[in-house]
Amino acid sequence: MDINKILSEIEEEIKPFLQQGKVADYIPALAHVDPDQFAMSVTLFDGTTYSIGCSDTKFSIQSISKVFTFTKSLNIYSKDLYKRVGKEPSGNPFNSLVQLEYEKGIPRNPFINAGAIVITDTLLSHYKTTNDTFEKILDFIKNVAHNDDITYDEEVYLSEYNHGYRNLALANLMKSFGNLENEVEDVVRSYFKHCSITMSTQELSRAMLFLANHGTDPISGEKFITDNQAKRVNAVMLTCGHYDASGEFAFHVGLPGKSGVGGGIVAVVPKLMSIAVFSPRLNSWGNSLAGTQALELFSQKSGLSVF
Ligand code: GLU
Fold this sequence. Notes:
By secondary structure, this protein is an alpha+beta fold.
């Protein structure tokens, strides 16, 4: 397979899509990004990375951070985690309150906001302080990315906090049902902080490689999680990674993947490679429009999917 050729075709064919969609504007700090950017990186098991576009530009990973927090929490709590968060697609927007009310404060899955907030709460219970919790999440991401040069964007973090009414509402609702162990304020602050971590597509595709290889980094041989845990994380990415467009993504792309409102998407081709794309304009479900299209083109041209 000629990955260079596939990527340069995608770089051409993606152009008409780069003007479509709308940049996330629910917080001012994200509304400012240059909307026309595009990047895509593919990392193979021998460490070779192929990239097009602004692949070393760091952007707000937002909900992609939920892949790493879920992985970490599953590794710590194993099956007990599912007492507090489910593993079913929600069929609802990422920040919906309605389902949470009638399902008594147990979020459908770790990738909708409510679920990710519970996951952050489990990590806060484990690591005790908000500082240590954030540092451990960041360390984990640095370890899987084999890169020390990863940090967060203070402006995005503060912007999220100052406009975080709905996430605070979700956290308060779960607290009222007894599904948050720590103070709402501490949990939500930690959640916003890990959402505001910034990475490039090169860094993200490298960071996802262990999930393409049963939890073990194929380059260093380091085992981050068990085979079974890696299978679970991939399954939840496939079924819940794109909110209520997860079915669409499985239908068109056919790979476990996770999007973020910053315009990033990561995807995994089991036993072969990991992929990251970035383009800030979003479709109506809040997923990168050109990014989704680029992944669909990649899967069509390469013939790679889990189906
Ligand atoms: N920090 C964002 C929020 O909680 C994450 C949403 C996303 O990336 O989908 O609203």
